[in-house]
Amino acid sequence: MTLAALWREPLVQAAVWSLATILLYLLAKRVHRRWPRWWLMPLAVAPALLMIAALALNVSYRDYIRGTHWLVALLGPATVAFAVPIYEQRALIRRRWPLLLAGMVAGSLTAVATSWALAYVLGIDGELRLSLLPRSMSTPFAMEVSGEIGGIPDLTAVFVVLTGIIGAAVGDIVLARLPLRSTLAKGALFGVGAHGAGTARAHQIGREEGAIAGLVMVLVGLMNVALAPLIIQFMK
Amino acid sequence: MTQRSILLQAHRLLRRNQLAQLGLLGVFWAAGEAVSRATGLPLPGGIIGMALALALFLAGGLKVASMKRGANWMLAEMLLFFVPAVLALLDHRELFGLLGLKIFAVIVVSTTAVMCVTALTVDLCYRWTEHHDAGSAVA
Residue span of the signal peptide, if any (chain A) (predicted)? Predict the structure, then answer.
């Protein structure tokens, strides 16, 4: 078998791209630990390098994701893992749930209202604007709501990922500028604003922040799926 | 071997072995997926699996120690699992222009607003209740 034929083999492609993804992520993590700048965050650097490689080798997204989909699927078990920090912080959550609820409602309303208004001002309309509205929830919830309100679920999934990257960086800046006293507020801002990616960042900041972010992320998703019909009413 | 001793063995394995703990997370996820498919609920399997695990912890049927190390590892490396999803951008070349810039602006400004509003709401409520608690403690 020639080298070119071997390269076209799906199994080889899957192995190469999975390995490349993991190694570039580990490399990006190392670089970020050495130089902790927000624009060097692994979630931005690793995909950027992979995208350059894919474009250079003329590999489409479909070919790439066919081999690496198992990594994305691991988000399922990772979600189950949130049971541990949430259980460990149950006393705090039981005592402070009204605060979290207030933050979730205020944050979700802000997400929908500002996305809609900014898109309107910038002349983004139609399905594209609707697809932008549910982007601060985690992907499965966001796609559900997007379809419900008349957006394009696939495009919403892309916006969700972008929000995660941007949110993890913006969250650090917001944390540094706002005089926040409670770990509850620090965790909640990541959970409401930047779903899973933000929650992963919150987990790196502290156990309590991570637990709150994880809980809030899940509850915001549930709340928005339940409230989607109301959002439609609001937009008519 | 009695059923009880098998369970004991399983618990001992789970407490020591991180790989077994990762497997347990997978089992809960698969169970969640099965429930999601069987009931037609619009909930992802991971979330149902998380609820199941949480319910078992609270009911005392499962010790947190038998999942903790696996869960910590999973949460620490979770960002890796988002990396492949970002490459979906390759299929949306239309976003690599002015439109993309506009959408970027919407996401940055809106996310900043959401985070500030959320954090300030929670923190102000927190300070208010602290103040309130302190006041009633004195009185």
Answer: none
